[in-house]
Write a structure and sequence with these properties.
Layout (H helix, E strand, L loop, with lengths): L2 E5 L10 H8 L1 E4 L8 H5 L7 E6 L3 E8 L5 E2 L10 E10 L8 H8 L9 E3 L3 H11 L4 E2 L4 H7 L8 H21 L3 E4 L9 E5 L2 E9 L11 H9 L3 E7 L6 E6 H7 L14
Parallel strand pairs: 1-3, 11-12
Antiparallel strand pairs: 1-7, 2-6, 3-4, 4-6, 5-6, 6-8, 9-10, 10-11, 12-13
Helix pairs in contact: 7-8
Length: 277
């Protein structure tokens, strides 16, 4: 588990007073370039289960929440700005308005300077983490959003529970399989083989490597692995099917690998670091 300081970005006119909106909606939100990372990537830095402390400029830390397995999606419900994203959180704890934890208080207690100049920065000092957790120990946590609402707020991009993600995946693959079989293709699942796609489809001398992505909502947003992306870039037989509303009214849309690269904005959510030899 990691601990993060999230700056509610209220030093500009667009952000003034928006901490209250975020706490009411139970989200973190950002817009613009965010020091080069972009709002979407910035909000996705905490992993599910990480702890996020809300920092309000001029006041201090005002709340604590847990990052959930539901990532950022486009929104205009907080700042009303172009390029805005928001991400749900859970187990929200809010301090009384007149009792924020100030920067000076933290520095005096632990000697650590929290990264309040960043929109989303890691808190790297264990004593500071302990101090902040103690301050919130007696504060009741509340869930302003139901699990269903958290799922819907992501626009179908991620589902909150692994079981829900599996249901969407199974439904999407089933819909695409039935479509191919109805067209008299031979379909073989290769999902467990980790070859960069889900279905091996053949019809006579035709062969397609079919990757399937499902969502709960109408938006065509999904996670794609490095292996799948590499397959799309290098194999002309690669085909992507995006199945929206997979659990209710499945709608399929087909893309070639080249169309995936040209039509979708593909951004990294995480990086792997390996010590150089």
């Amino acid at each position: 588990m990691e601990y993060w300081l999230y700056n509610t970005d209220e030093t500009e006119p667009e952000g003034e007073g928006k901490h209250a909106v975020m706490l009411k909606q139970q989200v973190v939100a950002a817009w613009g370039h965010c020091k080069g990372l972009g709002a979407e990537v910035t909000l996705n830095r905490p992993n599910p289960g990480d702890i996020v402390f809300y920092f309000r400029a001029g006041f201090g830390i005002i709340a604590r929440a847990e990052a959930v397995d539901s990532y950022s999606s486009p929104s205009q419900s907080v700042f009303g700005a172009v390029g805005e994203y928001r991400r749900p959180v859970d187990n929200l704890q809010v301090l009384p308005e007149d009792k924020p934890i100030t920067v000076a208080e933290i520095t005096a207690s632990t000697g650590y300077q929290i990264p309040y100049r960043q929109i989303m920065g890691r808190i790297l000092d264990a004593s500071t983490v302990d101090y902040l957790n103690r301050r919130f120990r007696s504060v009741n946590s509340r869930s302003l959003l139901s699990k269903k609402a958290i799922k819907q707020s992501s626009g179908g991009f991620f589902q909150t529970a692994p079981e829900e993600r599996k249901r969407v995946e199974v439904a999407a693959v089933s819909a695409v399989t039935k479509a191919y079989e109805a067209a008299e293709w031979q379909v073989k699942s290769v999902e467990r083989e980790k070859v960069g796609y889900d279905l091996h489809c053949t019809k006579g001398d035709k062969f397609e490597c079919v990757e399937v992505k499902g969502t709960t909502g109408p938006d065509e947003q999904f996670i794609i692995t490095a292996n799948e992306l590499n397959k799309a870039k290098t194999d002309p037989r690669f085909v992507l099917f995006v199945v929206t509303n997979a659990l209710t009214k499945p709608t399929q849309k087909k893309y070639s690998g080249q169309q995936l690269i040209s039509k979708f904005d593909i951004q990294p959510l995480q990086y792997r670091a390996v010590l150089r030899s």
